[in-house]
Design brief:
The protein has helices at 26-34, 45-67, 73-77, 85-94. The protein is mainly α. The protein has a domain at 24-74.
Amino acid sequence: MGIPMDTKADSGFNHTPAEASFVRGGPFYRAQQALGLIHPNKWNLGRRIAVVIVITWLPLFVLTALLNPQGLNFFAAGRSRSRSTAHRRASAVVL
């Protein structure tokens, strides 16, 4: 009964990774490393958030500009011009 376990036995599990992480790895992490957004000891969270916002919103903005140019009048008009009908109705309900 007193047989000691051999810790160096060839069981195939002798390899221990230097660092195990659920966050580091995978295709998105490698793509961010390739773009220079992630460095070994820096997460650069602000730049990564900015890149994600550009990647998600820029295609929508371009599609709106191409397919519905009137949809961009909101940006050109500014907030000082007339309000939309829906906005006027919502303000009337709130007041």
